[in-house]
Design a protein that fits this description.
This protein has 425 residues and is an all-alpha fold. It has 15 helices and no strands.
């Protein structure tokens, strides 16, 4: 009698990482734009002051991401997630009580640090540790956690805001964080070797049969070597330029659409369409990036973001809802692509061996110089020259990002990287 093989535990780790992205970056990034107008009124400050909260969130997330990447490499994932529960959950509770701008900023600093402990710096590294052949697909599934969050949560928060108030919406965020990240703590494991497993579920017996197919263990540059290469900085700057335009547009789009007389519920529905499209994009493009050049996939994503932003600039009070949906679907599909493509670009250029430290540093560069700057800069441009001008600046950043990625070439400091199916059994 032939017994069915148990499901590979790596897919349960993928589920855990998916929930991490749902409860951290997905929840905080996709819901933020809904809070800009009501918090501006509640605290009696301009919208740009509230938008700065997003920048504080991203800069704190970025500053901590490099540290988190090193801790993941040392196998401390569960400690990181537990810390994320405390900071993310507690930060949202404090946001519900904030009555001044300094307290508001301080809370978003806590939330940003919490997202670093339970966000992409952790989840992308898990995909690299548990998968080789299916790494792109695993990364896509993990990354779509944020997009799935956008499908459901903004509409729920809009209902909560309308019926109970904005402060209750922050408490709802806290509850989502605590419940989902507690499930993550139960499921997550750092490496397959810790459970006597090998990447992709390959068994030692299968290795014996396929000995001729065995490939060498993963190689790659250390972080210290990587930062001395032009390729590292070209891709880091490209990643930051992408974040500048992507997060800058998304977090300012809500206020722009409200100014164009779209209701809060309609804006929330647009976020839902972005999330739905992002789910399809992250999974499909994760699969695609395993088969095509990740650079090509990345540039395709930037082109979609630029086209979506161009549509957004043309929306006005009399625009049909279909144009809003078109913007949301294209923008969501473009947003979903980077999460699958960028980790693979870094792996192809720098190798997989020290991916955690390199990825944490790259994500820090994006957060500090891209996401952090994009929201307030585009908001300020919108105040002085209009939202259309601000969104055109974002389109230019998407183009620059694609060009820089194309220019990046593999460093000559080590032989061609051959991703490993297994470590030595």
């Amino acid at each position: 009698m032939i017994l069915a093989r148990k499901p590979f535990y790596g897919w349960f780790v993928v589920l855990a990482a998916f929930l991490c992205n749902f409860a951290s970056t997905g929840l905080m990034i996709y819901s933020f734009s809904l809070f800009v107008v009501p918090m501006s009124a509640a605290l009696g400050v301009p919208r740009t002051s509230i938008a700065l909260g997003s920048s504080i969130f991203t800069i704190c997330m970025g500053l901590v991401s490099a540290y988190v990447g090193n801790q993941v490499t040392k196998g401390r994932v569960r400690v990181l997630i537990l810390t994320g529960i405390v900071l993310l959950g507690g930060g949202n509770v404090l946001l519900s009580l904030s009555t001044s701008v300094p307290v508001f900023y301080g809370c978003y600093a806590l939330v940003g640090i919490g997202c670093a402990f339970a966000g992409p710096a952790v989840t992308s590294t898990l995909a690299t540790a548990w998968f080789d052949k299916h790494r792109g697909l695993a990364s896509g599934i993990i990354s779509c956690g944020a997009s799935v969050c956008a499908i459901f949560v903004p509409s729920v928060l809009a209902i909560v805001m309308g019926s109970v108030g904005i402060r209750a919406a922050y408490l709802a965020n806290a509850a989502i964080v605590v419940v989902l990240l507690t499930v993550v703590l139960v499921l997550v494991r750092t490496r397959p070797q810790d459970m006597g497993l090998l990447p992709d579920g390959v068994t030692p017996e299968e290795l014996a049969v396929r000995a001729s197919q065995r490939r060498s263990p993963p190689t790659g540059l250390t972080l210290q070597q990587a930062v001395r290469t032009p390729a590292m900085w070209l891709v880091c700057i490209a990643f930051a330029a992408l974040g500048f335009g992507q997060i800058g547009v998304m977090q300012n789009a809500g206020a722009f659409l409200i100014d164009q007389h779209f209701s809060t519920k309609t804006v929330a529905s647009a976020l839902g369409w972005i999330g739905l499209s992002g789910v399809v994009s992250t999974i499909f493009c994760g699969w695609l990036a395993d088969r095509l050049s990740p650079k090509l996939v990345f540039c395709f994503g930037n082109a979609l973001l630029a086209l979506a932003t161009l549509i957004l600039t043309g929306l006005g009070p009399g625009s049909a809802y279909g144009w809003l949906v078109a913007y949301a679907l294209l923008f969501g599909f473009g947003m979903g692509i980077w999460a699958s493509a960028v980790p693979l670009i870094f792996t192809n250029l720098m190798g997989a061996k020290y991916f955690g430290a390199i990825w944490g540093t790259a994500f820090a560069v994006r957060s500090i110089f891209g996401d952090t700057a994009g929201v307030p800069v585009l908001s300020k441009i919108a105040e002085t020259a209009g939202y259309q001008t601000a969104f055109r600046v974002a389109i230019v950043m998407f183009v620059i990002s694609a060009v820089l990625v194309i220019l990046a070439r593999r460093p000559k400091l080590f032989p061609k990287v051959v991703p490993s199916v297994v470590a030595e059994a």
